[in-house]
Design the sequence.
């Protein structure tokens, strides 16, 4: 079971890191795109709306990274260090990953399976 926990730990670290890198690339892309779109916007209302959308999108992205990517990396490190709390955090994050089809769903199912097997081992000992 320790091997499965190590695999899950690596998966969580990789997916969390990819989420952060993806956020950085998407943020950079829209930071380059919005000034071009603002040049085409006519009137003060159009520019105001685009600025608001730009800031709102960056805030939402940062919140997603803060609540999903960083805890995912923390859970992965905890699983690699065989911390008991890390499996519970990974289980919670795995349930959220179920909605991210297809890779997140596979990781979520895998983590749920690991959690169930771990609980069976605890009950039999």
Sequence:
């Amino acid at each position: 079971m320790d091997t499965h926990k190590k695999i899950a730990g690596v998966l969580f670290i990789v997916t969390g890191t990819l989420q952060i890198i993806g956020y950085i690339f998407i943020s950079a892309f829209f930071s380059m795109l919005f000034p071009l779109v603002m040049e085409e916007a006519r009137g003060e209302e159009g520019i105001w709306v685009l600025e608001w959308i730009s800031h709102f999108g960056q805030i939402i992205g940062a919140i997603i990274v803060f609540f999903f990517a960083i805890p995912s990396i923390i859970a992965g490190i905890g699983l690699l260090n065989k911390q008991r709390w890390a499996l519970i955090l990974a289980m919670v994050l795995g349930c959220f990953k179920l909605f991210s089809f297809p890779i997140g769903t596979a990781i979520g199912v895998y983590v749920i399976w690991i959690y169930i097997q771990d609980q069976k081992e605890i009950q039999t000992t």
Summary: Residues 2-84 form one domain.
